[in-house]
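Fold it.
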Amino acid sequence: MFVRVHEVGPRDGLQNEPEVVSTEDKLAFIQRLVASGHRDVEVTSFVRPRWIPQLADASEVLARLPRVDGVRYWALVPNQRGLERALDAGLGHIATFMSVSETHNQRNVNRTVKESLAGVRQVLGSARAEGLGSRAYLSTVFGCPYEGPVSVSKTVELGLALLDAGADVLALGDTTGMGWPALVQEVVAAFGRAGVGPELLALHLHDTRGTALANAFAALECGIRHLDASSGGLGGCPYAPGASGNLATEDLLFLLHAQGYETGIDLDLAVDAAELVERALGRELSGRYFRQARGAQARRAARTA
């Protein structure tokens, strides 16, 4: 069984870092991810640079990335202007975003949910007309740091609207890691009752409370075969208090491979990619498998020195 791992470190990971990583380091990071076998990499975001200065070099990054057969580069676009910039940069796959939670949506994009839905519908329609692949993020699906529990029925209603507008995949976001396995399965089952099968769903998990891997496993049991992860556990959300890092790519790969799933990604090379970005940031990454693997490498080097 094959599971598609959608790598979000270069975008969702780096956007939350206080340091601005150089374009050269970003390119080296992405190239190492591709070399490890990743075929879906979210590389940047076409938002206003003053909002996310860490990704202000979006057009340059896209222009300089190597085109590799079978590799899909993705970028987040907030609106029609962002889509136009993405098209000018030659991007083939875009992601949109909005929240289920009214308060989080206002804090994130200063719009009501209704206003965001109208804008995202326009972007998705334009992307489809241009022949672009698209995924739509729904944030705070499993809980909101401002409002608490989130209505499953509202999540399904918005998800159906986004799929109807042209999204190829609906990515359900646990923005602050408030979800648990039974809730993950409840949400997936609710979409199933609405006629949306697991092949149209992805999960975007954060590990704030240490439940990301358990939630991923619950999703796999529901038939989900599309999971987001971030190299070394990079990431968070600047507009969601308490949002720690994403599910670490290496942790997810270890679980998937141990359970007999195929990903096409070399775990050792994925560790190398995380090590590169750790050096660029100058701080230790949180991924558990990555820290263990790096520690084992250091011990081996010490024994042979």
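Residues 143 and 149 are 5 Å apart (CA to CA).
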